[in-house]
């Protein structure tokens, strides 16, 4: 009898079966009442249409993927992933100084226009933005992620909600951890999602706190966690008298490729923001930074569940909570 049990257990398929069962019962991150393929009956080509708009825009302008990804981050952290960041007008989130450098709105608007032609009043701006950011990562060479849909568009957008919910580059690890945890995101998610800085750009003002200006207008490095040669390079690109619209690449090596170069940069003290450098400086995240730097696959594998969690923050799914906007920049009842 014992022998028979052993023979049974030694068969590989038994293990595959057990792994399959455990995967099925393992808790998946809760994502409100969203579902995969929410539009499969009401607008079967919705995801395809968003994808095409993002593909065309990104191939014309390689800065688009970074813009869409950051737009999603700033949407989801304020009032949840509900397109509140897209609303225009006095006192909306967009008008807060922390959001004035956001871009990529026109890509979401284009996708919305196409969808309104084919499936009027059906696909939310919140879903369009989440799908667009997902596709943007893929087009920049990053991992393919399946995300559920069914988000509704929020009706509230207030500048005063931005500061308490968006991380500043000067935040300590404890402050970042606290804010992430208030959104249901872990330290692992922080280390993983910060990898978004492998693409995109930043204005000089976003990291000027790492330098000090003397009376002659000369900048010197005051942050020991930054590599000296890299700091010199940054000073060249962003001198004290730089035009405020000047931008530098977040990842000085492969700025348009979604790869693990960001983590390799952190290892050699080339993280652009203080909030990037801190991930390598702190014991709690250093191990993960090293592992992602050594193995792109492990970064990509971690990206999918963390990105999924990001797109699920505070989603609205009932008619009371949100609507399907006709235009992404204004609510239906003006
Ligand atoms: C953890 C704390 C974070 C801080 C302090 C931070 C801060 C910043 C800052 C200051 C910029 C430059 C903006 C500018 O000057 O135009 C930036 C750019 C960017 N951030 Fe973050 N970020 C954080 C996390 C994230 C996350 C979680 C994502 C997405 C998952 C993200 C995606 C991006 C992208 C893609 C850009 C480039 C935007 C562009 O090219 O237009 N960031 N971030
Ligand atoms: Ca929002
Ligand atoms: Ca890169």
From TrEMBL:
Domain Plant heme peroxidase family profile: 33-332
Site residues, Transition state stabilizer: 70
SUPFAM superfamilies: Heme-dependent peroxidases
One BP annotation, GO: hydrogen peroxide catabolic process
Manner of cofactor binding, per the entry note: Binds 2 calcium ions per subunit. Binds 1 heme b (iron(II)-protoporphyrin IX) group per subunit.
Record-annotated disulphide pairs: 43-119, 76-81, 125-328, 204-238
Subcellular locations according to the entry: Secreted
Residue positions binding Ca(2+) 2: 198, 251, 254, 259
Cellular component terms (Gene Ontology): extracellular region
EC number: 1.11.1.7
GO MF entry, a single one: metal ion binding
Residues the entry annotates as binding Ca(2+) 1: 75, 78, 80, 82, 84, 93
Free-text function comment from the UniProt entry: Removal of H(2)O(2), oxidation of toxic reductants, biosynthesis and degradation of lignin, suberization, auxin catabolism, response to environmental stresses such as wounding, pathogen attack and oxidative stress. These functions might be dependent on each isozyme/isoform in each plant tissue.
Assigned protein family: Belongs to the peroxidase family. Classical plant (class III) peroxidase subfamily. Belongs to the peroxidase family. Ascorbate peroxidase subfamily.
Record protein name field: Peroxidase
């Amino acid at each position: 009898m014992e022998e028979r049990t052993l023979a049974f257990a030694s068969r590989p398929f038994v293990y595959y079966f057990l792994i399959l069962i455990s995967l099925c019962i393992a808790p998946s991150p809760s994502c409100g009442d969203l579902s995969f393929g929410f539009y499969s009956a009401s607008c079967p080509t919705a995801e395809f249409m968003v994808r095409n708009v993002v593909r065309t825009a990104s191939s014309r302008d390689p800065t688009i993927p970074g813009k869409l990804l950051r737009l999603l981050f700033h949407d989801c952290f304020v009032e949840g992933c509900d397109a509140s960041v897209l609303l225009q007008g006095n006192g909306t989130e967009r008008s807060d100084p922390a959001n004035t450098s956001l871009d990529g709105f026109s890509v979401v608007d284009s996708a919305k226009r196409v969808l309104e032609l084919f499936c009027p009043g059906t696909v939310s701006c919140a879903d369009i933005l989440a799908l667009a950011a997902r596709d943007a990562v893929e087009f920049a060479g990053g991992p393919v992620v399946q995300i559920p849909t069914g988000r509704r568009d929020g009706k509230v957008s207030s500048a005063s909600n931005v500061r308490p919910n968006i991380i500043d580059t000067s935040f300590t690890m404890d402050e970042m951890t606290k804010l992430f945890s208030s959104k249901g995101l872990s330290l692992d998610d922080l280390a993983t999602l910060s990898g978004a800085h492998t693409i995109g750009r930043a204005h000089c003002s976003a990291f000027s706190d790492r330098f000090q200006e003397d009376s002659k207008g000369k900048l010197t490095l005051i942050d020991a966690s930054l590599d000296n040669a890299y700091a010199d390079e940054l000073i060249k690109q962003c001198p004290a008298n730089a035009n405020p619209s000047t931008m530098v690449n977040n990842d000085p090596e492969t700025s348009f490729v979604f790869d693990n170069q960001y983590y390799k940069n952190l290892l050699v003290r080339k993280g652009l923001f203080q909030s990037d450098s801190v991930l390598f400086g702190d014991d709690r995240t250093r191990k993960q930074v090293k592992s992602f730097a050594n193995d792109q696959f492990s970064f990509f594998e971690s990206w999918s569940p963390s990105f999924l969690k990001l797109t699920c923050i505070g989603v609205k799914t009932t008619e009371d909570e949100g609507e399907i906007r006709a235009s992404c920049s204004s609510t239906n009842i003006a």
